[in-house]
Amino acid sequence: MKRIFAIILVAVAMLAVSIAPSSAAPHLKATGDVNLTGGIGDRHAVFNAHDDAPAAKKTVEDRGDLFFEITSGPNAGSWFRADLDCVEVVDSDAYFSGPVTETSGFYDQFSGGRVYGHVFDGGTPGRNGDTWQATFNSSSGPCAAPTGGNPVTGGNLVVHS
Q1: Closest alpha carbon to 70 in 114, 30, 103
Q2: For residue 39, which phi and psi values (nearest 5 degrees)?
Q3: Which residues pair with 54 in a beta bridge?
Q4: Range 129-132, long-range pairs (CB < 8 A, 24+ positions)
Q5: Which residues contact 55 (CB under 8 A, 6 or more apart)?
Q6: What's the whole-model pTM score?
């Protein structure tokens, strides 16, 4: 009798664990491989930004990387890389920043500086409403983002909130 009671108790506990709602917070992130046109020439950006830290501990666990290059125009071939250490995902927007770790050509002037970016996910693949904006050496906070946005003209970005 004790053995049957123990088996039933274990089965009930296993069932309770399997149907209990998950207490884990959603994994907030933004990823993209996008193209932009106009201004200083055609540009290409690849990024992966993870918002893993609680808001009270910003920059502790956030991480990601960014590669950005100019693909046409007078500065074609110029590029930079950044290690993202501050990421904030809010609804369809992602804000990120990090130190510029490598540069080439036009972007050599930002070597050792910091890049700040903002992306907006318009909800459909490709260029229907997605925007991208970035600037260097902002002084308005660790994850502060530039205003406005350049329309994505190819590729896709996704903000997971």
Answers
A1: 103
A2: 65, -115
A3: none
A4: 130/32, 130/34, 130/156, 130/157, 132/32, 132/34, 132/36, 132/45, 132/157
A5: none
A6: 0.77
Q: 144 phi and psi, to 5 degrees?
A: -60, 140
**Are the CB atoms for 40 and 73 separated by under 8 Å?**
yes
Identify whether the C-beta of residue 130 lies closer than 8 Å to the C-beta of residue 156.
yes
- Tokens 């909800």 -> residue: 123
- Going residue by residue through the chain (161 aa), what tens digit of pLDDT does each one get? 555 544 444 444 444 434 444 445 557 899 999 999 888 889 999 999 998 755 545 545 788 999 999 999 999 999 999 999 888 888 999 999 999 999 999 999 999 899 999 999 998 776 678 999 998 876 556 677 677 788 999 999 999 88
Radius of gyration of the chain (CA): 21
